[in-house]
Amino acid sequence: MSSTVSAPTPTVRIGSRKSQLALVQTYWVREQLQQRFPERSFEVHTMSTQGDKILDVALAKIGDKGLFTKELELGMLNNETDFAVHSLKDLPTNLPEGLVLGCVTERENPADALVVHEKHRDKQLSTLPAGAVVGTSSLRRLAQLRHHFPHLEFKDVRGNLNTRLAKLDAGEYDALILAYAGLHRLEMSDRIHQVIPPEISLHAVGQGALGIECRAGDTETLNLIKSLEHTPTAQRCYAERAFLRTLEGGCQVPIGVNTHIEGEQLTLTGMVASLDGKRLVRDTVTGAAESAEQLGVELASRLRQMGAQEILDEIFAQIQRSERF
Known about the structure:
By secondary structure, this protein is of the alpha/beta class. The chain is built from 11 helices and 13 strands. Helix 9 (231-247) runs parallel beside helix 10.
């Protein structure tokens, strides 16, 4: 008897969050793959994550890694979807058994951006008046901005981008700090008042890049999504993720990074700050881009020697205390 080789399944199922930004990113991935593999069909399956459902509590208090990814990961593990598209900054550095980060796409500008209320159109971050209320849901941004601008007030802000901007325009906030990439992808670049330089705010690990996660060993899907890999972005993000993983940080911890590649050399800057912004340690390493993860581990070790571990231990203790009440 002759054996027959079955043709690949024509329909590839893509997992995505339901948010507007997530769908814009996912449909971009689908379009890119459809162009490369016209013989296949790609369908998007949407689902809500815990982070999408709980909008009245600060992210740090809901805490935990996988806030925006767990449901998507279960979809893959249960064979309901073949891969999932994430904002890479939301994807934990330690993935569930059976899943892998299969692709990192070319990065948008990873910087943070200042968006202001109309009455502050003539201001920059450094010239906002004392007591101005700045909205952010990120402890990383909060700690760095408190460090540089202790005269400003900071208030948590949740919800999708349109909700946040509506709260700003209604006067609940004087300004917001948002990701440049999200505003750009949603064609809201006109709202960007100032791109915040890395000297003030190092960005989140993986910010601006998309991470495509799939089942380990699913070579067919891996071969499809690898066609979208952007090697320089992947090297930068693997260095950043190794730095974060080594420090055992998550979304509740003020850890920021900045990376760039020149030729074959990758430079990684990282920082750890206390929640009040009064203590901040920061350093930079440079080395071969092909050894990206090793550079991340090296920088984490350096910052630990500079006092980062004491800051992190204190933050974890604070989080544990707040969870008891």
